[in-house]
Write a structure and sequence with these properties.
With about 240 residues, the protein is of the alpha+beta class. Helices cover about 40% and strands about 20% of the residues. The chain has 6 helices and 8 strands. The chain starts with 20 loop residues before the first helix and ends with a strand.
């Protein structure tokens, strides 16, 4: 929004053209032969702040109370009427938009702060309840289980002896190793049988899984190997 601004200082009563506050200050500065950097040094502002004022970049300017002070000092430096410059600023449509945006940001901040406070209060209540409940709960004495006394006179149970029956389905040469001992070779003809005993374990090396049928305690032992392939049968 633009309006007429009456001149002051060296210009006397001559009217200025219809200008916005930023454009008016920029023209007055040029008439005075000052650069933006010189103005910034006199007003103790940054060069970018002076540029934002003349460009009316309200989104980048500080809150209005500071902007009014900047405008008054700027006008006095240029021998202009400070209140007329401030009035031009107050009539700027962008100022109202900026205030609305600032109000929205402020409202969002308030809502965020309220939400954070609510979360902190809820967390504090939960911790307090848990602390009180922990103090009221008394630890129970551990249960002691009485182990029966061991009777050294009782005999320890003996391991069951392994009994393996072999039946040759065809002529076969096998090796047997019982309880980790040295291997023993046996040559069985088709139809012959062999009974082997072991305390803990037994290994049978057969040339062909189909050549020998293996029974452990009268039950067949499954052998997973291809026909014709030498196989090591571990029992149990």
């Amino acid at each position: 929004m633009t309006t007429k601004v009456a001149g002051s200082g060296k210009e006397g009563g001559r009217n200025a053209p219809e200008l916005s506050f930023g454009r008016y200050l920029g023209l007055r500065r040029e008439e005075k032969g000052l650069t933006k950097q010189e103005v910034a040094a006199e007003l103790r502002l940054t060069g970018t702040t002076v540029q934002w004022i003349e460009e009316e970049n309200l989104d980048r300017l500080p809150p209005e109370v500071y902007v009014k002070g900047f405008l008054r000092e700027y006008a006095r430096l240029l021998d202009a009427d400070p209140e007329q410059v401030v009035n031009l600023y107050l009539q700027c449509p962008g100022r109202r938009i900026s205030e609305d945006a600032a109000g929205q940001v402020s409202a969002r901040r308030r809502r965020l702060i309220i939400a954070v406070l609510a979360i902190l209060i809820a967390a504090g209540i939960i911790l307090l309840v848990r602390s009180v409940g922990h103090e009221e709960k008394r630890p129970e004495a551990p249960l002691l289980r009485m182990m029966p006394a061991r009777n050294d006179t009782e005999p320890e149970p003996q391991a069951r002896e392994l009994s393996v029956n072999l039946r040759a389905e065809k002529d076969a040469a096998i090796k047997v190793m019982t309880d980790g001992g040295a291997p023993v070779a046996y040559h069985l003809k088709q139809g012959e049988g062999l009974v082997l005993k072991a305390k803990n374990k037994m290994n049978l090396l057969v040339p062909d899984p189909d050549s020998v049928r293996v029974l452990l305690d009268g039950k067949p032992v499954a052998v997973y190997a291809r026909p014709g392939q030498a196989t090591n049968i571990r029992i149990p």
